Amino acid sequence: MTDLGLWAVPVAILGGAIRVSTPFLFVSLGEVLTERAGRINLGLEGTLVFGAMAGYAVAYESGSAWAGVLAAALAGVIFGLLHGLICSLPKVNDIAIGIALMLLGTGLAFFFGTPYVQPVAPRLPAIDLGFWSGIPQVQAALTVNVLFLAGIALALGMAWMLRATRVGLILRVVGDSTDAARAMGLRPNAIRIGATAAGGAFAGVAGAYLSLFYPGAWSQGVSSGQGLMAVALVIFARWNPLNCVWAALLFGGAGALGPALQSVGLSEGYYLYYAAPYVLTLGVLIATSSPNRATAGAPGELSITK
Amino acid sequence: MSHLPLSRRGFLRGTAGLAGVTALSSLPLAARAADKLTVGFIYVGAKDDYGYNQSHAEGAAALKSMPGVTVVEEEKVAETVDVTKTMESMINFDGATLLFPTSFGYFDPFILELAPKYKTVRFEHCGGLWTDKDPKNVGSYFGYIDMAVYLNGICAGHATKSKKIGFVAAKPIPQVLENINCFLLGARAVDPSITCQVIFTGEWSMPVKEAEATNALCDAGCDVITAHVDGPKVVMQTAAGRGAYICGYHANQSALAPDKYLTGAEWNWGKVYTDFLTKVMAGGTIDNFVRGGLAEGFVKMSPLGPAVSDAARKQFADTQAAILKGGFSVFKGPMKDNTGKEVIPAGKVYLETDVALESMNYLVEGVLGSTS
């Protein structure tokens, strides 16, 4: 092992950003899709935890990590459909349903997940992008999971879709004005249900990443609230898929700060470093807010903007 | 745990029950023997965490086969007023007369404040430091797992090539600090130039942060890693994945990486709880202050893994024999902490049973890290 001195901190932050950001990215992309269609799904934390459990269980039983990812995505679709269908009923509040589904998802995951805490499931493969470096720390930091790359591709694809395609336009119309969508002959409810289901699938995949790659085990504490933070990231990213990538990387890197600083000897006050992601959020939100454009970019049909 | 508003009927039933218990407890001990007994176990995390809580839950499961014993359990009870609510509900609604709140933070102030209110209930806390000033219906028990961690350290000292070993720790409480110190002192019994890097995660169970901490240790060059968190599975898997050797904690984690697993410090609560209950069912009382180590069967070692060298096996066996014989000490003066302050004066020797060790608040020289 090469001794990197203080360089260990930026290397660790880079590694942390790559390792920890993927669940944030997938959940926030799923939420962007849902919210651009005019719904808020706060239940993605539950979907994430259930996806983590379902993915781990199926990967263990079938012996294939990719089967686990697929199962997690399917579970996410089911939760998304449930949310979308219930919210299509008149006078149903999507925020309340989201919280209910969050509790249901985590509860079901804990209930079914008990036998899978101890067994070891196959892990998702990683691509070694650090082969050019002779430094083991850099090699470890650049061990990138396929899902991370898939997440970035997804963000680019979604940004293009929302900006330049007919599907994107339909989604945006439904999200910005139900009346306009109806006038165009669209069926807002059906489109919202579809968007919520797709968003749920993303959150399920995020869960599978947690349990099948990093940290790579199923336990009840596996999410530690990342699903909730990712939903908040959407506001932070102003409903823009590309901003979600930066926000996710920022949060991943900030999470690596505490352990990295302790490992180079800056060990006093680690509780303070652990608060870094939250301080960062506050700081950026204050910096980017203004009385004139408080919810710039927010879809018009969101229940928080109406 | 939902807070139940106390209705008049519920209150009357509760007080009637309490009166009954009080009447019962005024009978001579022998008359109460072989009665039915409800025992309550409270865990801070999930009881299937492959770690600390599971070790207690397995101990509780061992009691379920005892005749006349009913076990009630509640998991994921925070170290806050939540535990008070859980204890009161176990006492008033389940009729529990013996409670095992197993997490460190439950003791002070929650158990100490509730115990005087329920004088007929026995509170047995794991890891707390009971003194004569505390209520008489409170007891504390713990195992000297630090000696098992010292044996981990010996295996680590033989296995390390970088002369740097790593420790992922949850919170800087005395038992965790003692384990960190023992891990290093065990390794230093092999080679005094070894250092131990510690990273605190600040939480008993936080898998992503534990994985990050393990990666940071590996990046810092640590090649043998152990942990003191509730569920060490993530640390073990991540460390082994990075090519480091691992020493288990709480339970036998060798199945996670058999080639990298050196040995591990395991709890053996099944024996401890069965002994307690046998005593209570026979009409006796549990001592207020119970401790035991390797010799008493409170803790045990995982079988040595294939990576443990012959030299390590010999030193391991010799040290284990010395510990089992009694009178073995690792905290001997003169000893400095890692800020250079003398913490044990020359000539002072603390045996494993010494109560002073249970209020340890320092990291010894050679540990890289800080307690705050």
Summary keywords:
heterodimer, A: 306 residues, ABC transporter involved in vitamin B12 uptake, BtuC, two-stranded antiparallel ribbon, 13 helices, 69% helix, B: 372 residues, alpha/beta, Rossmann fold, 2 domains, 7-stranded mixed beta sheet, 6-stranded parallel beta sheet, 11 helices, 17 strands, 36% helix
| pLDDT < 50 runs, ≥5 residues of chain B | 20-34
**Low-confidence spans of chain A: pLDDT under 50, at least 5 residues?**
none
What is the structural class of chain A? mainly alpha
CATH superfamily label of the largest domain in chain B: Response regulator
Q: In percent, how helical is the residue content of chain B? A: 25-40%
Structural shape of chain A: globular
- Residues in helices of chain A, as a percent range: 55-70%
Summarize the structure.
The complex is a heterodimer of chains A (306) and B (372). By secondary structure, chain A is mainly alpha-helical. Chain A has 13 helices and 2 strands.
Commentary on this structure:
The complex is a heterodimer of chains A (306) and B (372). Chain A is an all-alpha fold and 306 residues long. Helix content of chain A is 69%, strand content 2%. In chain A, strands 1-2 form a two-stranded antiparallel sheet. In chain A, helix 1 packs across helix 6 (146-164), helix 1 (8-36) crosses helix 10 and helix 2 packs parallel to helix 4 (94-113). With 372 residues, chain B is an alpha/beta fold. Chain B is 36% helix and 20% strand. Chain B has helices spanning 8-25, 29-32, 52-63, 81-92, 107-114, 145-159, 174-188, 207-219, 233-241, 269-281, 310-325; strands at 37-42, 69-74, 98-101, 122-126, 138-143, 164-169, 195-200, 224-228, 245-250, 261-267, 289-292, 299-301, 331-332, 335-336, 342-344, 349-350, 367-368. In chain B, strand 14 (335-336) and strand 15 form a beta hairpin. Chain A binds chain B through residues 1, 3-4, 8, 11-12, 15-16, 19-20, 110, 114, 117-118, 120, 137, 140-141, 210, 214-217, 219-222, 224, 226, 255-256, 258-260, 262-265, 267-271, 274, and chain B through 45-46, 48-50, 76, 162, 197-202, 205-213, 215-221, 223, 231, 233-234, 237-238, 241-242, 255-256, 368-370, 372.
